[in-house]
Specification:
Shape of chain A: globular
Largest interface: A-B, 21 and 25 residues
Helix content of chain B: under 10%
Mean pLDDT of chain A: 93
Shape of chain B: globular
Number of helices of chain B: 0
Radius of gyration of chain B: 13 Å
Low-confidence stretches of chain B: none
Oligomer: heterodimer
Radius of gyration of chain A: 13 Å
Structural class of chain B: mainly beta
Order of helices and strands of chain A: EEEEEEEEEEE
Strand content of chain B: over 45%
Chain lengths: 112, 114
């Protein structure tokens, strides 16, 4: 059972455009929702994270939108740059365990 | 500030062998988690250690095991390797209590089983 569903699998955006990646979760015990960015040959790096008591969090060009009732959250990358080309993972954590449950990832390509 | 260090970076093993991977967490971090990353299954949780105790375990066979030492360094072992164990093995560290949300990943160990 996949507890965090991520879409799309891949995304191509022109430089300067907006990249949007969506995730949905099932476990209502989750209380922390991070996004990770991974470049080839590297481990995932924390990009931005949100807790369910807020609906939006912005850090620079990156924004998380969170809809608790729909159990969905999304990552928006404004003014996308070629250097943003990477794989992005949403994740969730919470309840009585200490593990991150990841989505399957989105390969983002930003064309110059 | 040093990050999470995983050694070795690359390994090639033969089916049936065993392998040990090492992870040194960020100084001060007491929690170490291990994840397996494959193209088909994505990132899957193996286990998490805090103060030398396993607190949580994922759905992997008993061939996968781990331990944590008093200095918080961790090792994971895979016995009787199978071709399907080929993957990138990632380690993540955090403070583990209070600020349990700050997970930092290492660059991983790429294991190839032939």
């Amino acid at each position: 059972q996949q507890q965090v569903k991520q879409s799309p699998q891949s995304l191509i955006v022109q430089k300067g455009g907006i990249s949007i990646i969506n995730c949905a979760y099932e476990n209502t015990a989750f209380d922390y929702f991070p996004w990770y960015q991974q470049f080839p040959g590297k481990g995932p790096a924390l990009l931005i994270a949100i807790r369910p008591d807020v609906s939006e969090k912005k850090e620079g060009r990156f924004t998380i939108s969170f809809n608790k009732s729909a159990k969905q959250f999304s990552l928006h990358i404004m003014d996308s740059q070629p250097g943003d080309s990477a794989t992005y993972f949403c994740a969730a954590l919470g309840g009585s365990n200490y593990k991150l449950t990841f989505g399957k990832g989105t390969l983002l390509t930003v064309n110059p | 500030k040093a990050g999470v260090t995983q050694t070795p970076r690359y390994l090639i093993k033969t089916r049936g062998q065993q392998v040990t991977l090492s992870c040194s967490p960020i100084s001060g971090h007491r929690s170490v988690s291990w994840y397996q990353q494959t193209p088909g299954q994505g990132l899957q949780f193996l286990f998490e250690y805090f103060s030398e105790t396993q607190r949580n375990k994922g759905n992997f066979p008993g061939r996968f095991s781990g331990r944590q030492f008093s200095n918080s360094r961790s090792e994971m072992n895979v016995s009787t390797l199978e071709l399907g164990d080929s993957a990138l093995y990632l380690c993540a560290s955090s403070f583990g209590d209070g600020d349990r949300y700050g997970y930092t990943f290492g660059s991983g160990t790429r294991l190839t089983v032939v």
